[in-house]
Amino acid sequence: MVEGSNQSLAVRLRESDADELLQLLRKHVKELDVPEVRQALRNPFLTQQAIELLLDERRLLAFSEIRKDLVCHPRTPEVRARRLVPSLFWRDLLQISIDGRVRPQVRRSADLQLRERIHILSVGERMSIARRASPALIQQLRMDPDPRVIGALLENPRLTEGSLMPLLGSDRAKPEILTLVARHRRWGIRYGVRSALCRNARTSPEIVLGLLSQLKKSDLRAVFQDRRLSVAVRRRAGTLLGHEPS
Fold it and tell me: What is the enclosing helix (H) or strand (E) of 3?
């Protein structure tokens, strides 16, 4: 097709009613290019029957943009949408997993696919995901061993104190990661975070000693009685309580 006819067909695919759109797709599906298909997918009168015409054209499914648009479209049969999810790039999976307009089961499939791939992604890619990750992905990313990934996760607006606690209570958490949390402008000022950091033997004693004076007596007593913690930390907690550890 010449450029003018391509443009004309794209406009018709975007603006036609349901019957005309279906006729156009039947006539031109073998020759449509990516921009034309994406215009058709933006047509509010696109029916499930029309979508299935596109799904059955294997040539079109070779294009990642079309696969993503089909996965996201509310009229794509859910089974077929979920079947396409594994073929998407991680950036598309991330976008789908946090898009409230996408059906919940499709979002869940994107989450699961990302979780399966996390371990093969680079640090930079995991950082990009951590900044925007869904709550389901946060559960996996919060135990990432790289401080840079945790630093990115701490900036995620979907991160909650509750979802951060398993990291703060973990006996496998790296001291430098716990220090990162303690010094974070948002999380380091939260009482629950400070208390959890003080109870973790992996937290640097220097960090804990700076936090103890801010704890309630009940939490100080728990620190004082916890023999997993360093002598210096327990002694300071005892001093604040008015007695020394035995």
Answer: helix 3-15
pTM comes to 0.86
Which amino acid type is present at position 114? Answer: L
CB 67 within 8 A of CB 88: yes
Q: State residue 214's pLDDT score.
A: 95
Domain ranges of the chain: 1-62, 77-159, 161-246
Residue 3 pLDDT greater than 70, yes or no = no
Do the beta carbons of residue 195 and residue 219 sit within 8 Å?
yes
Residues 6+ apart with CB under 8 A from 85: 71, 93, 96, 106, 109, 110, 113
Which of 84, 81, 41, 91 minimizes the C-alpha distance to 62?
Answer: 84
Q: Is the pLDDT of residue 144 over 70?
A: yes
Is the backbone of residue 194 left (phi > 0), alpha (psi -120 to 50) or beta?
Answer: alpha
Q: Rounded to an integer, what distance in angstroms lies between the CA atom of residue 236 and that of residue 194?
A: 16
Q: How far apart are CA 132 and CA 126, in angstroms?
A: 10
- 1 pLDDT band, cuts 50/70/90, is very low
Q: What average pLDDT is seen over the chain?
A: 94
